[in-house]
Amino acid sequence: MNIRMTNKLLRLFMVMVLFLSGCQKASEGTPEPVQPEDSQNTGINETTEKDKDTIVILHTNDVHCALNDKIGYDGLYLYKEEMQQKYENVLLVDVGDAIQGGTYGSLSKGNIIIQLMNDVGYDCATLGNHEFDYGFEVLDDLSEKLNCGYICANFCSADGEPVFAPYRIFDLAGKKIAFIGVDTPTTFTKSKIHTIVDDTGLPMYDFMADETGEKLVQCIQKYVDEVRGKGADIVILLAHLGNSDNDDRRFHSETVISKVHGIDLLIDGHEHAKGNFELKDQDGKTVKYSQAGTKLETIGTILINPDNTITTGFTDEVPKPEGIEAELVTRGKKEYWVDSSIKKKIEEYISDYDDMLNRKIGEIAFDLPVKTDAEGSLAKLRDISMMNLFTDSLREISESDISLCVGGSVRDGFRKGDILYSDCVNAFPYGNDGLVMKMKGQTILDAIEFGARKLPASNNGLIHGSGIEYTVDLSIPSSAKEDANGVFIKIDGPYRVKDVRINGEPLNLEQEYTVAMVNYLQEGGDGFSMMKDAEILRYTQKVESDIIAKYIEQNLGGVVPEKYNVVENRIKQIGFTEKKE
């Protein structure tokens, strides 16, 4: 074990000692009945009675750098203040994916978000897959800056010890409330954590994944039993898992809950969904479930009543404050009440980046959409012009034969009008470095085949490219084999990818090509292990947002041409037949 890991475990032990001793919270408050669970706004009604027996939990998930969008952190803080006027015991928790997904998160590598989480006063937070996007060293530093720290039971070193505290127990209203943190095991391939290896080349970290999902379940059950043994009256799973059809069902929150016992409430994230419902655990006991959408469109509002029953609900808009200084702001077409002091802090934090972000890169006479409400990210389903524009920029800037990029790399499109540098960062916020590799045709084919394995379903790893086009025959089942972490092993059967052409010519499996991509893909992100040993020829010394900005500004003369208004169909899909009920 290296010195860094030894120090990490020592620090972990000290943190756990503090965390597990419990933490008393005291704030003035009064009670109030919550509206029914299907209500669009479960804000608290006015009352004059103080409530010292009910525990309020406010929760957020998948904020993705929405500093002052919709409710915003300033509105969240105001709502927390309102609850603290009515209730003595108020907790604020986050379920991951807070520090990435927007301009200011990318430019500050998450630091602005951590500052705001401290300003707002989070009491507990777990990790999402995107907390790892800036690398583990950055996350490690951010975890020390975050006042409440992170908890996560299943992000472990190779010997199975949690890197962060697995849980935290609060003593409130005469009860012990335990929170156990969990992050989706798919983080292993969707972040750079898999690139941190020991002297033998084996990964130094593990998310408790195996072929069946039982390893994760056993990990969670271990800590449920542990906190129950410490006298926990209520056990809450802060789980960045979700139940999306696009994610591995082994790690769905519904799957996990059905295999464990002793959990009272699951506060979920990852899926970007808004919902309150009930699940059944291994013993048939009811487990309350809540997830609060994304980007602070709503605040999850939970009451733990004196009799230990749990009421879940949402707050879509912060009520007009009484006796608290606040400000009414307009965001989009809607007005929101926000705390003036937090609003001012946000303005101060982002002002340092204004000149850079407001620089005009070019113009576009049409929209380049990336997602729809009905289908989500289009780049994970099929060929789209926004990805064609980016892969063209990557190929030309790097002077390569072809370029490759996965559909999950793009987060937003361009809209008709001026293109600012901020638009480029919003579209490609991950900050991955561009590089050029020497790669055989067979490796390229395997990469495309692996990326197409889930079609016609959505897939983060769908390969887009410039200088390359291909056809996917959906009538042929995927024969791509992957391990428990979703890492490519081999193609073990017929290829569904056909007619691959490089600059108009058939792909030569034995020929070597120069291939541009970003280091996330080269390092095996999304499970693309087949290219990790290919020779790196050079780096572009630019991240994605800079690559597309330079291409538009210099190569295209500041004007995105009309050809991108029509999808070129570089990825053809044939042989699809809908299943009949």
Overall pLDDT, averaged?
89
Q: Ranges with pLDDT <50 over ≥5 residues?
A: 1-47
Shape descriptor reads: globular
Instruction: Give the CATH H-level superfamily of the largest domain.
Output: Metallo-dependent phosphatases
- The assigned structural class equals alpha/beta
What integer value in Å does the Rg equal?
A: 24 Å
Beta-strand proportion: 25-35%
Query: How many strands in all?
Result: 30
Which architecture of the largest domain per CATH?
A: 4-Layer Sandwich
Number of helices: 15
Care to describe what's here?
The protein is α/β, with parallel strands linked by helices and 581 residues long. The protein folds into 2 domains: 318 residues, Metallo-dependent phosphatases (Purple Acid Phosphatase, chain A, domain 2, 4-Layer Sandwich); 215 residues, 5'-Nucleotidase, C-terminal domain (5'-nucleotidase,  domain 2, Alpha-Beta Complex), CATH 3.90.780. It is 25% helix and 27% strand. It has 15 helices and 30 strands. A 6-stranded mixed β-sheet has the order 5-6-8-9-11-10. It has a 5-stranded mixed β-sheet with strand order 3-2-1-12-13, with helices on one face.
Give a brief rundown of this model:
Helices cover 25% and strands 27% of the residues.
